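User: quick one, sequence for these tokens?
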């Protein structure tokens, strides 16, 4: 039986603040032909380096400076400030959101992020941002992403997925051997000595210096066949991926890695245990079809006279004119 689902999403202040400060504020865009601000880009890079230093259990001396600490404090405070969005367009505000301007002091080479304030108004003392076309596009993209996330999928037969996993591992092993043979220089420092990891161990292969996401993207990392096979058995028995994680008490860090691995083979949180014919249309076709009917449109109103408001007024006037005549 066909069902019409209406997707709704509530976007809160935290979401607006995150999207604006990470993807809009002084960040470039090829689509909208906007260049990124070099001072803001450098400040963000220094912030990430210092944050990585704070998160690391091994603190290397002289790795960060006093200016790095000051930049981290300034950027962190700005990032955690909430914003107020306005619809009205202002050229001054647009420029403030694109370039550093007065926020960069060339004499002492210092970058700060000030507030764009609307003094003597309810927005006084708050960070104010412009709700632009670019910002709206990002909100719509997020909505579509969430809609697609909740679409149903079907899982392939167990043997087919296992064969694909084994084939993937074979290719990953060959690719890793080739990559390491071609990039031996990446394991050496400027003096030709082997580089060392943070724990002091020597770097033997170039792949050891890459992130997990990079290894997965370039097919250089093998996945655990035993682990994925045990999860697939549970899914084929009728359990969801969420139920499997709860039953095995899987740590959150491991869940993220397993999800990424399964995603490569077409297995998601919404995957069904067997093939089911599901025809999903994420458009407004059914709404347009239903609202063509006056009977359907009449259901929108609690009183019949509300639906025929214009005709109802005309009838009342006609009745009054007949009485006066």
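Assistant:
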């Amino acid at each position: 039986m066909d069902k019409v689902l209406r997707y709704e999403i509530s976007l809160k202040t935290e979401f607006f603040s995150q999207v604006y400060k990470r993807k809009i504020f002084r960040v470039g865009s090829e689509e909208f032909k906007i260049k990124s601000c070099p001072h803001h880009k450098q400040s963000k890079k220094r912030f990430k380096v210092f944050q990585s230093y704070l998160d690391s259990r091994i603190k290397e001396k002289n790795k960060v400076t006093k200016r790095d600490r000051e930049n981290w404090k300034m950027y962190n405070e700005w990032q955690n400030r909430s914003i107020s969005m306005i619809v009205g367009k202002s050229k001054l505000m647009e420029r403030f959101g694109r370039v550093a301007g007065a926020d960069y002091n060339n004499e002492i080479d210092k970058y700060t992020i000030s507030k764009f304030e609307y003094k003597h108004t309810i927005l006084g003392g708050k960070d104010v941002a412009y709700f632009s076309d670019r910002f709206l596009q990002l909100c719509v993209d997020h909505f579509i992403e969430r809609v697609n996330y909740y679409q149903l999928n079907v899982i392939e037969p167990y043997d087919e997925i296992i064969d694909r996993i084994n084939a993937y591992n074979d290719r990953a092993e060959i690719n890793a051997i080739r990559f390491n043979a071609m990039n031996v220089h990446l394991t050496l420092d400027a003096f030709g000595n082997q580089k060392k990891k943070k724990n002091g161990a020597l770097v033997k292969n170039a792949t050891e210096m890459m992130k997990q996401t990079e290894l997965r993207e370039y097919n250089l990392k093998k996945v655990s066949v035993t682990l994925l096979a045990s999860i697939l058995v549970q899914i084929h028995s009728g359990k969801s991926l969420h139920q499997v994680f709860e039953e095995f008490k899987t740590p959150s860090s491991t869940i993220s890695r397993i999800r990424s691995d399964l995603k490569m083979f077409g297995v998601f949180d919404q995957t069904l245990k067997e093939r089911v014919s599901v025809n999903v249309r994420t458009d407004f076709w059914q709404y347009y079809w239903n609202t063509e009917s006056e009977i359907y449109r009449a259901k929108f109103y609690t009183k019949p006279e509300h639906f025929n408001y214009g005709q109802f007024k005309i009838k009342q006037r006609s009745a009054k004119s007949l009485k006066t005549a």
